[in-house]
Amino acid sequence: MRFRRSIISILFAAVMLMLAAGSASAQIGIGISVGFGPPALPVYEQPLCPGDGYLWTPGYWGWDADANDYYWVPGTWVLAPEVGFLWTPPWWGWEGGFYHWHDGYWGPHIGFYGGINYGFGYFGDGFYGGRWDHGHFFYNREVTNINVTNIHNVYNEHVDIRNNSHVAFNGGQGGIDARPTREQEAAEHDRHVAPVAAQMQHVQAARGNPELRASANHGKPPIAATARPGEMREGAVGAKEAGGEYHAPERNTAAEHGGEPARGGNPTHPKDLPAIDKTPINTGDAKRDQKLQKQQDKMIAKQNAERDKLQAQQDKEHAQLEKQNANEQKKAQVEQKHAQQTQALQQRHTEQRQSFQSHAAPASHGGGRPK
Question: What ranges do the domains of the chain cover?
Answer without folding.
Answer: 1-371
